[in-house]
Each structure stands twice: as structure tokens, then as C-alpha cells.
């Protein structure tokens, strides 16, 4: 399960956070507590989180209910976006319009002079796989990270071409996506969910 952190003040202001270390708002803490109660019911076997405050605080709410120690890893941080960080959406479009348009077209772009999306996947996906490999059979791992990092990680694990990663819609604050191992590799079972997974009945038949 790849779980996005709760709300921050920069989320409300539509500011590009990137690797800037922004804390949760009171609403964000409440979101994390609500979601943690749901996720704890799945009895996860391990929790790993970005070390940025907003993700670590979200993970701490689940750890408090499960008793698991959280493994923090800087490789799960959000995309570093250089000069874009701290700017609002409108400011980015006004100052970096062509760069923004190229990114939306699926071209490899160093937004604000920062990381490529493929570089984010290069650092984050192996961490997810490393921790997943340590799970017991049919075990559950919860990865607490950031919207962009989660999207690129899912794209990489599913084997999608990088230019198609944007087709995976964004995650709302404190929502999650669920991946499971199928006969032909990883499958996306749920995306941007805020409720517990339901069994899939009649899949492909």
C-alpha cells in the first residue's frame, strides 16, 4: 500500500512542495489518524516512510496503532524540483510555461532544474521492493510517501513507459494505492482509495 501524507498548508495554497520539509496542518493530522485506523485493520507487517516531516508524522499515526517501528528512508522523498519549489501552480505556469507544458506532454523535464521523474523512480522503487521482499507470505507493507513519488513508483513497478505515468491520476491527501503481485508481475488493485480494499469478484471473466 502506497499512502500519501496528510494535508499541509502548502497543499492548501497549491504550492509545489517537492523536497521542502513542510509539516502537517491540524486537518492533516486528523486525516492521518482517520486513515491510520482503517489501515491498522489490515494488520500491516511493516511500515516504511519518507523522512520528510509530513510523511513521517503520517506514518507515526499508523505506528502508534500497530506498534511497528517505522523505517525512514530519504529515497522516498518527493521529487526535488529546484526553482519550482515554493511557487504556486499559477506562478509556475507564468514563469515556466513551456517547461510545464513539456512535462504535461510526457517529455522528460527537469522541473525547476531538479530531478527527472525517472530518477525519482530509480531511487524510490528499489526501496519499496527491498521492504516488500522481507514480508512474510501474503504480508502487507505500507509505504508512506508523496504524490509524485508514489505515481512514479507505481509506474515503474507496473512496467509502464515513463511518458504514460501521468495517466495515473494524483492522490488526494491521506489516500492510498494498492499493488499486489499477480502471475505476470505487479498489478494495480486500487488507486486513490480512502476506504478499505474490497475483494474483486469476477475479474476478467
UniProtKB/TrEMBL annotation:
Active site as annotated: 5 (tele-phosphohistidine intermediate), 78 (proton donor/acceptor)
One Gene Ontology cellular component annotation held by this UniProt entry: cytoplasm
Annotated PROSITE patterns: PG_MUTASE
CDD domains: HP_PGM_like (cd07067)
Binding site residues for substrate: 4-11, 54
Pfam families (UniProt xref): His_Phos_1
Gene Ontology molecular function, alphabetical: phosphatase activity
SUPFAM superfamilies: Phosphoglycerate mutase-like (SSF53254)
Leader sequence residues: none
InterPro entries, sorted: His_Pase_superF_clade-1, His_PPase_superfam, PG/BPGM_mutase_AS, PGM_Phosphatase
Domain of life where this protein originates: Bacteria
Name under which the protein is recorded: Phosphoglycerate mutase
Species annotation: Streptomyces gardneri
Amino acid at each position: 500500500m502506497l499512502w500519501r501524507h496528510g494535508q499541509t498548508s502548502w497543499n492548501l495554497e497549491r504550492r509545489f512542495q517537492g523536497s521542502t520539509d513542510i509539516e502537517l496542518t491540524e486537518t492533516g493530522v486528523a486525516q492521518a489518524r482517520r486513515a491510520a485506523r482503517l489501515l491498522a485493520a489490515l494488520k500491516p507487517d511493516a511500515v516504511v516512510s519518507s523522512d520528510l516531516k509530513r510523511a513521517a508524522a503520517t506514518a507515526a499515526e499508523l505506528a502508534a496503532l500497530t506498534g511497528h517501528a517505522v523505517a525512514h528512508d530519504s529515497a522516498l522523498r518527493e521529487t526535488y524540483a529546484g526553482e519550482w519549489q515554493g511557487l504556486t501552480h499559477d506562478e509556475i505556469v507564468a514563469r515556466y510555461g513551456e517547461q510545464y507544458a513539456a512535462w504535461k506532454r510526457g517529455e522528460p523535464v527537469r522541473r525547476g532544474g531538479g530531478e527527472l521523474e525517472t530518477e525519482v523512480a530509480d531511487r524510490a522503487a528499489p526501496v519499496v521492493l527491498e521492504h516488500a521482499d522481507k514480508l512474510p507470505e501474503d504480508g502487507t507493507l505500507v509505504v508512506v510517501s508523496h504524490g509524485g513519488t508514489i505515481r512514479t513508483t507505481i509506474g515503474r513497478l507496473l512496467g509502464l513507459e515513463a511518458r504514460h505515468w501521468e495517466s495515473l491520476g494524483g492522490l488526494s491527501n491521506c489516500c492510498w494505492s494498492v499493488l499486489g503481485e499477480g502471475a505476470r508481475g505487479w498489478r494495480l488493485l486500487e488507486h486513490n482509495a480512502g476506504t478499505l480494499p474490497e475483494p474483486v469478484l469476477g475479474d476478467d471473466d
